[in-house]
Write a structure and sequence with these properties.
heterodimer; A: 173 residues; mainly alpha; Arp2/3 complex 21 kDa subunit ARPC3; 7 helices; 0% strand; disordered C terminus; B: 270 residues; alpha+beta; Thrombin, subunit H; 6 helices; 12 strands
Chain lengths: 173, 270
């Protein structure tokens, strides 16, 4: 059913989780800001995927990162929540034809719409992530700063990824 | 009835969502400290091998710097021995043995989270147990939180739950070192008595009150002394002696806790 094979998805999951755990988690700008680039996988889920499929993939992606960074449930919870919103957000930015399979990207959606979609996705995920991470909540300003700057950084990573991979990956119809 | 079933099938993903989210939140909050330790240790026995592989590669590139650090430390230790050799009988076997100190390699580390953890490549098999003190050549690192068979998880100074008994070097003023997130180079001693003789630039060391750490291991230097509004206590800001983001080798103070002290403490607490 899916346009992308199970094995290919699994590979993406492993690669993104490894990238996050071994490299991105170690990036700490100004003591607060970290790119959470792994949501790229959830961002790119195409419009033909079943909602349950999206949820399961996102959950296991988050869980894989949790296991290797000693944060039980943190990434799983925020990734699952983002996955719940993903199909709706996609529809918010692009009118879907019933039969089209849309892979979110600047080619398929238009640059401005895609950027808006990325920002909103990152904002939802990072807000949940940093709130869960900072419980018991104390300093709201610091929390807001962490969210805003991490969203910007993740956004930059995703734009770079889009620019470098989209040409090779996308098939023009 | 049929339409109800239909509804449930069509919205099965909502149930799946609730299920997965609940599961995540149980993992996140349902864990009490003991379960969290279990998760951390088991997760680490799984990821330990991977970490070790990565650290192996990374450490290869840091050899030159590491050598330099070791040479410096050798020199410092040598000078200490010469200083002490008059007053101590260093020829006794006890003084020379390295009993009570386990050398371990840091295989995973973080400084950016609100609660950071360090993983080392030594565990119960090497004589490490919960509650032991960990320090590096520069100073205090943290306390062993959980010991697995081959790996252990350390709660470093940069963890909201860590509290280390320390004092101003050469004086009796003491307090507990804590960390409230943010800057990984600065921690605080709160609730130091108001009259304590402590000034900017003073050196902070461990007290040795508990057997977790030996006495006089460097903790850091005082960067700022804040007088609290309540008029009774000081808050002392400490520049940490150890750069937590650049830890490679650590020493675990595995001298067995004095059973008698433990027993007394327990009696007092009851």
């Amino acid at each position: 059913m899916g346009t992308v094979s199970f094995m290919r998805r699994l590979m993406t999951l492993v690669l993104l989780a490894a990238l996050q755990v071994f490299f991105l988690n170690r990036i700490v700008l100004f003591g607060y800001v970290t790119p959470l680039f792994y949501i790229w996988m959830i961002v790119r889920f195409d419009s033909s995927m079943s909602r349950s499929g999206i949820l399961l993939w996102a959950f296991f992606l988050g869980l894989a990162i949790d296991v290797f960074s000693g944060t039980p449930g943190l990434n799983a919870a925020s990734a699952t929540l983002l996955a719940m919103f993903q199909p709706g957000l996609l529809k918010l930015f692009v009118a879907l034809d019933r039969h089209d399979v849309l892979v979110p990207g600047s080619d398929s959606m238009g640059g401005r719409q895609f950027a808006g979609y990325l920002l909103l996705m990152a904002a939802i995920h990072h807000t949940v992530y940093f709130i869960l991470r900072s419980i018991p909540l104390g300093d709201w300003t610091v929390l807001a700063l962490k969210v805003v700057f991490s969203v910007v950084l993740t956004f930059v990573f995703m734009i770079v990824a889009e620019q470098s991979f989209s040409n090779s990956g996308s098939k023009r119809s | 009835m049929r339409s109800l079933l239909d509804f449930i099938v069509r919205h099965s993903y909502v149930f799946l969502f609730v299920l997965l989210e609940t599961l995540s939140l149980v993992l996140l909050f349902g864990f009490n400290d003991r379960q969290k330790e279990a998760f951390l240790t088991s997760a680490n026995s799984l990821s330990g091998t991977l970490y070790e592989w990565r650290t192996g590669v990374e450490q290869y590139f840091g050899l030159r710097k590491e050598n330099a650090v070791l040479v410096l430390e050798n020199a410092r230790l040598r000078s200490l021995i010469y200083d002490l050799s008059d007053s101590l009988d260093l020829t006794t076997e006890r003084a020379l043995s390295s009993d009570g100190v386990v050398v371990a390699r840091v295989i995973d580390n973080s400084v950016r989270k609100d609660d950071n953890y360090i993983t080392i490549d030594k565990g119960r098999r090497d004589g490490i147990a919960q509650g032991m003190g960990v320090y590096s050549s520069d100073g205090v690192v943290g306390i062993v939180m959980a010991a697995g068979r081959n790996y252990s998880v350390i709660m470093p100074v940069l963890n909201g739950n860590t509290s280390i008994s320390c004092k101003v070097k050469g004086s009796d003023s003491f307090g507990f070192l804590e960390w409230y997130g943010g800057d990984p180079y600065v921690a605080q001693i709160k609730d130091m008595p108001y009259h304590s003789a402590v000034e900017t630039g003073d050196t902070i060391v461990t007290t040795g009150f508990t057997s977790v750490f030996p006495e006089n291991i460097p903790v850091g230097t005082v960067s700022n002394v804040e007088r609290m509004k309540n008029g009774y206590t000081l808050r002392v800001h400490v520049n940490l002696a150890v750069d937590m983001s650049d830890l490679r080798w650590v020493y675990v103070h595995s001298r067995i806790r004095d059973a008698e002290i433990d027993e007394l403490l327990r009696q007092v607490e009851e």
